Request: fold
Amino acid sequence: MTSRSLIAVLRSCFLRAATLLVLVRGDCAAQSIAAPVDVHLPLLSKVIEYDRTFRKKINKVVKLGVIYQKSWRPSAAVFDELLSVTSGASFTVCGFPVQVVPIDVSDDADVRELLGKYVVDLVYLAPVRGVSMEDIESASEEQHFRTITGVPRYVEDAIAIGIDLRNDRPVIVINLTAARACGADLSAQVLRLARVVE
Reply:
């Protein structure tokens, strides 16, 4: 994928985000996601294509772990939206089909211990309460899965890649330290288009 292709995807996402935000702005704010799941998740999947090492580790299907809290409505709602987006045959990551692996961290679950029980390639972090970002980052470094989110604040904390909005336009946000720690090798093309934090 070229820079022009990514820019085209961003423009398309902008139009959808602008329309959807008018409808769901209040709901999104409560959930702490910057843009609806059906806008930011496809964009995140495109960004992963710019990780030069990710495709090499995939064996037929991308195992997408989803950290969420079933007992907290905003988190469970984002999880349901993610299931809806990924259930379509057209949704792929690097051309591979996606298998969702739910990881419920309700009831004070130890997120690092839970992540150790699963073999995943990519982890999506839904809005959560009381979950240690450092534990997710440590598990990511140990197991070399990539971390993505629709909550921009989590990228500031330790998640590798997220989506924010600036003037109602989707913006890629990359925590370069976290991305490199989990083994990601993001191309200069995507880094030029992103807001990079370290």
Observations:
- The two ends are 25 Å apart (CA to CA).
